[in-house]
Amino acid sequence: MVFWSGLLLPVLYLTILIGSLATFSSLYRRRQIAKAAQLESWFPPHRARDLYLSLLHIDPAEASSESEQKITQVPDSLLKAALLRRALEDIRRIVQLRGSKQALQNLVQRGSVGDELWQRFQRAEQEMEAEVKDVAQEAEALVPGWGQVIFQSANEFNQHNLLRERIFELKDKKEADIAWWAARKAGIQSEFMKELEEEELKKAQGGEGECACHRPFGFPGGFAPPLRPSENRGFRLIITVSTGSGGGGGKCPAPRGQPRVVVSQ
C-alpha cells in the first residue's frame, strides 16, 4: 500500500505534463493552420480551372433559357479545350515558381523578407503539385493516355505564345526605331546643310578683298596649312604665282608667271 501511494505522485505529475504538452501541440497546430489559411494566395484566382469545373458540372436542369435547357451534355471537344487551357495556365505558374524560388531563398537567408512570404511560396508549390495531379487525372479520364502528354502539349503552346509575343514586341520596336532614325536623319541633313551654307558664306566674305595671285602656292582659297607648336616660331615662307599682266599697272606687282616670294613671321 505504501509502495502504490509513493508512485501516485510521479504518475500524476507525468499525466499532467503529457496532457499539457498534447494540449499545447494541438492548439499550436490549429493556430498554424488558421494562420496559413489566412495567408494571401501567391497567384490570382485560377480562372481557367474555374471555367473547366463549371463546364464539367453544368446541369441543364438549372438553365434559365430554353436553349440552355436543350443542352444535355457539354461536348468533349469543349471540355478538352478547357482542360488544355487549364494546363497552359499551370505551366505558366510552374515556370514562375521555379524562376522565383532561388532568389526568394537568398532573400529569406539574408533576412530581407519575412517568413510569411516564404510560407506563401511553399503553400503555392503544394497547391501546384495538387493541381498537376488533378489535371493529369482529368485528362486521363477524358482520353486514355492523355494525362502523360497534356503538360507537354501545354508547354509547346506556352513556348509558341511567348515567341509570338516577342515577335510583336520586336515589330513595335522596329516601327519606333524607324521613326527615330527618320527624325535623326532629317536632323543630320539639316545640320550638314547649315554647315555648308556657313562655310560658303565665310569663303565669300573672306575672298572679296583678296587678290587671287597672293594665295599660297598649291593651296586653294588662300588656305595655308597650320603649323605645329614647334613650327610656330621663326619665319614662314609663302610662294605665290602672279597670274595678272606684267608691269605695275595691275594689282599684282610681280610679272606674269613669275613666282613671288613672301616672307612672313
From TrEMBL:
It comes from Dissoconium aciculare CBS 342.82. One of its GO terms (biological process) is post-translational protein targeting to membrane, translocation. Residues 244-265 are annotated as: Disordered. The keyword Transmembrane applies. This is Translocation protein sec66. The keyword Transmembrane applies. InterPro entries: Sec66. PANTHER family: TRANSLOCATION PROTEIN SEC66. The chain crosses the membrane at residues 6-28. It comes from the Eukaryota.
